[in-house]
Amino acid sequence: xxxxxxxxxxxxxxxxxxxxxxxxxxxxxxxxxxxxxxxxxxxxxxxxxxxxxxxxxxxxxxxxxxxxxxxxxxxxxxxxxxxxxxxxxxxxxxxxxxxxxxxxxxxxxxxxxxxxxxxxxxxxxxxxxxxxxxxxxxxxxxxxxxxxxxxxxxxxxxxxxxxxxxxxxxxxxxxxxxxxxxxxxxxxxxxxxxxxxxxxxxxxxxxxxxxxxxxxxxxxxxxxxxxxxxxxxxxxxxxxxxxxxxxxxxxxxxxxxxxxxxxxxxxxxxxxxxxxxxxxxxxxxxxxxxxxxxxxxxxxxxxxxxxxxxxxxxxxxxxxxxxxxxxxxxxxxxxxxxxxxxxxxxxxxxxxxxxxxxxxxxxxxxxxxxxxxxxxxxxxxxxxxxxxxxxxxxxxxxxxxxxxxxxxxxxxxxxxxxxxxxxxxxxxxxxxxxxxxxxxxxxxxxxxxxxxxxxxxxxxxxxxxxxxxxxxxxxxxxxxxxxxxxxxxxxxxxxxxxxxxxxxxxxxxxxxxxxxxxxxxxxxxxxxxxxxxxxxxxxxxxxxxxxxxxxxxxxxxxxxxxxxxxxxxxxxxxxxxxxxxxxxxxxxxxxxxxxxxxxxxxxxxxxxxxxxxxxxxxxxxxxxxxxxxxxxxxxxxxxxxxxxxxxxxxxxxxxxxxxxxxxxxxxxxxxxxxxxxxxxxxxxxxxxxxxxxxxxxxxxxxxxxxxxxxxxxxxxxxxxxxxxxxxxxxxxxxxxxxxxxxxxxxxxxxxxxxxxxxxxxxxxxxxxxxxxxxxxxxxxxxxxxxxxxxxxxxxxxxxxxxxxxxxxxxxxxxxxxxxxxxxxxxxxxxxxxxxxxxxxxxxxxxxxxxxxxxxxxxxxxxxxxxxxxxxxxxxxxxxxxxxxxxxxxxxxxxxxxxxxxxxxxxxxxxx
Length: 911
Prior knowledge:
Layout: E1 4-5, E2 10-11, E3 15-19, E4 22-29, H1 36-50, E5 60-64, E6 69-72, H2 96-105, H3 107-116, E7 118-123, E8 126-131, H4 134-148, E9 156-162, H5 168-183, E10 188-193, H6 196-208, H7 216-219, H8 224-232, E11 237-241, E12 262-267, H9 275-284, E13 289-294, H10 303-310, E14 313-317, H11 319-325, E15 331-335, H12 352-355, H13 362-371, H14 373-380, H15 382-397, E16 404-408, H16 412-439, H17 442-457, E17 459-462, H18 470-476, H19 482-490, H20 493-498, E18 504-509, E19 522-527, H21 533-540, E20 553-557, H22 562-574, E21 583-585, H23 587-606, H24 611-616, H25 619-633, H26 637-657, H27 667-684, H28 689-700, E22 718-719, E23 722-723, H29 730-739, H30 741-762, H31 767-781, H32 787-811, H33 815-825, H34 833-854, H35 863-877, H36 887-910
Parallel strand pairs: 4-5, 9-13, 9-14, 10-11, 10-12, 12-13, 15-20, 15-21, 16-18, 16-19, 17-18, 19-20
Antiparallel strand pairs: 1-2, 3-4, 5-6, 7-8, 22-23
């Protein structure tokens, strides 16, 4: 541990790791009983503001409570921090702390991380630092080993199977950059995809992380001749489509380059990179090495062909493991087929040959409509689409987590038609809610108003590829593509959809955006298009990315792809020898909710609170029982924290199940736990009762009896963290204490803590007051004093705070002058009355002198203005009486006043 001095503050982090004098990693350690998030919220966030220079050269941060351990970038959100599960890919999971420390802090591994596994990405809002996850490090290093064995494996570097959402594109960049650092030479990397939009996306990713330093378009091969030219010029990165390797029937593939320092990287190595195209790649680049990156496993029949080109699996990180690690969220299946529906047999046999093509061109689409006219007609019948649109509108607006959603239609015309139908259905829903709002009671009305505002702000759009004669073709069907095409050309719809705060929340597609398109805010995929195999798996994986507040993704099936989904999932989960299903029926969410409810009920019953009894009661009886529950659960602190944790888990599980009708039986117990938790929170500090009521009503979609329990008991003005102590009705509190002593004590404690913090911020010499309060609270939590004694001590503390607040007036000073006076006199020296008068004069005149200097904008940033303030303090403090302030004490007082001025006036102006 070392003290780090910032511009305005001094801090001492738990551990700093230095390499040649550079602080390259930092760790914060908490006790086993403390939540891991406390190390982030209480320490790391503070360090970012107070000692930011410690992170100028840093690699990563470790946070641990002795049981759990995670690592990440200092400026990343907490949910971006991740554990390190194992040291080798096939090894079992080890103890969390030991495994992470060995993986990140052993010298060789540490240097490897800092050199090869930190990326800086140009993202919305500025530069973003990325610290690789353990599966990326292990996988890339396995691929590097294959490059080292390139003679033995004959250029077949392997298949790198890491599930969608686990950072596969970034792993590619880490792999190529490490090859360049480790191997040297003039390596060129040819990144091969099978769609133009994927080619653009992967090239833009490489550019965003600084691997590709030239214009993206200059690195994309526009033709076979251009590909040959780029390889001849030793370009570092070349991006091309697999179709550049196609030839006419029986026409031999010409050699494009005989270089042996070319590595071909194919994205999704098993879609079309086989047979003649694979052979052509080999013929065009006879001495190149090949590695395939994929987010889905090889299906039966593909393995031998793929291994001929790429070799065996070099690294596997499957869906189930990524969910266990928290790298992605779990997916849940919800079948919502309308009554008018195809028989599953209608979607088999020859139709399957077209299903795995994510993007049908005009010819294939025409063939689909002609060859399967009966099936196509059933899917696109107007009355069926009406039912789907009505259901989608209600489902989308009633979800527990209001993320974004994608509707996948069978073709372009149906995407446009569904956009118009869903828009109309949303309009009808808005009308229904507006009518209900007129007669709704307060809590229900607040929830309805919130939902109405959300629905009215909703933006939806169609995103489909262009085709010849599309305007005329869709006009023949009674549809107008023109306004949609104008939006696609004039607006950056991709950026809007990726922005979690943009109201563009629902998109209608048929082929675009369903592969290689990452939007963490997407929580729901509405499937109304026959699909199978890799395209199906890649489409549903759009919903598995992590986002704030998102606990799961939901796949809503309108078309009946369940059989195809089961087949794909059997391959997907079993590809690595596992049997865990990466997508589950929503029945699993019912089980999860029952488990969370059981734990919460058991905890409540352990302290005499009957959740079912409260749910069964009504009117004043319910209010009384909720009040008693709050009394039983509000203290001590550990009990209250456990209640809030369990209640939050129950609410999350309930919201994940919505709007499923199976949530209905759990409504009342969920309501009880949520209301009790919110009532406890309302007792602890200022509460927006209307907002809390709206949250409860919105969660449960009904008026909740007993919301009045949330009304704050202590009335008074609270502004900028300050409590008007004179407004506290101690007689009212005493009356309350006789009925609910714990609630009264916690209420008064909240007042005391708020005011004590405000007073300490104004005057740092009042630290003894906050320590005294903390000792009282610790004794109460430990059971050393009962609620009656605690309450009396808190009342006495209120009087002490009030007396301290009046002291400035008694001394003939204002609060700011009193703070300077206290710094100069506490804890020493002892002064005579005459000397006290001299010190007060110095305090008044010092602040008067500093006012002009402190008015400068950002005065702490300039060396000259900082020096002027320091000089003014020293000059004025020279006027202190000499006898009580020998040189050593005088220097200490100068330093204390300078620190106070920095803290009080520097940080305030910076904010």
